[in-house]
Request: fold
Amino acid sequence: MIESDDFLGTTPIAIDDKGRFNVPSRIKSILDRKYNSDLIICVKENYLLISPHNEWIEGKKNWEKLDTFDDDDGKRKRMRKVLSRATECQMKSGKILIPANQRESVGLAKEAVLVGMSNTFEIWSREQWEKESG
Amino acid sequence: MIESDDFLGTTPIAIDDKGRFNVPSRIKSILDRKYNSDLIICVKENYLLISPHNEWIEGKKNWEKLDTFDDDDGKRKRMRKVLSRATECQMKSGKILIPANQRESVGLAKEAVLVGMSNTFEIWSREQWEKESG
DNA sequence: TAGGATGTGTCTCAAAGTGTCTCAAAGTAA
DNA sequence: TTACTTTGAGACACTTTGAGACACATCCTA
Reply:
């Protein structure tokens, strides 16, 4: 099957009682084909940002250049905020487990939404997503 | 048969109980000849916009690059707006399936209208189309 | 070392998606 | 008109997907 290499679209997902969700088949097939099961989860303002590990490494090449003289109020501050709460994770048995503290950080309950963002994807609680998109 | 390379005209189509429609032969022959079966469906205000995947890739070349740490108000938000409303799909067995949530987004029931728009085409519910064109 | 919280593998069943056939209607050529 | 071809709606059986359930594993702390 010929498919695009981009994460796209909005898919409602259900988070189970252990904090996992089934990776939608469209997303899973892109991970299988273009990347692998290794992922990085970042906590952003009101959603979670999930990158394939390879994409993370790519991005890192850019922000690693940030030198020690950058002032503390700008980008460095934002980076610290994100990196300090980021974790590695893996897709296992077609599912992704979101650690409890990250779920709490963005108020993820059972009903959630996965939003494709080209080379990464985001997980929103349904409430937050309705605010964002509505 | 004289064949144009452009999607043109207005064709009534019937959406079946699973959410598929038969691609009108005029449209199908343009897809077969000039493009292929890979498509992108975008949810617009009150209709769906379907582009051949190639056309989408062309547009994508101009996109901004996203950064893990960028603010959520700027380019990320703009990009999310576009990407979250797009889904890729394929014409299969001469039919296109419109996912349930996209059908709901624009109120597509059984009676619909396909409108050619040169290098893309649109799907309207009959009611919306009558408002738009009438 | 027992018991809770967290994390993992696998199964089931309904819903979503897919391939193919039929038949009547529309279109086309002689 | 008549005979032949193409088209499109519907039917139907099959496959894939995803939510939920459940049993088991691991880790931590008391």
Observations:
- Chain B touches chain A through 25 residues (CB under 8 Å).
